[in-house]
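Category: protein sequence paired with discrete backbone structure
Discipline: computational structural biology
Format: plain text, a pair of labelled lines
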Amino acid sequence: RPSAATLARALSGETADGPAVVEEPKGLELIKKKMHWAVAAAGTVGLVLFQVTGDLADRSVITDATFKNILPFIVGGFVASVVGAWFHGEKGRQRAPAIEWVLYVLIAAGSTLVAMTT
């Protein structure tokens, strides 16, 4: 028969070598990082901005060219929000890795380049 200590270790997931490593299913990582919330929130904000700027263009408050220049920044903001959620979706203070900053620069440069060519 197992001892009480052995049974307690087994129930808590510990092994004789220390805590057991339990692997999470692949899809659970995205849920843990709350990616679905980031995509939903950024998408909602993007759609609202698109609607508002479209209405302003329809009312001739802003020109059609200005409206077309705003669109790449709305898309870039959505992509940047998803990147931020990917790197910082878990609780607690987290440092931004260099690749995150590179991605932000590329998103900003791409949005600006597309806006300048429209």
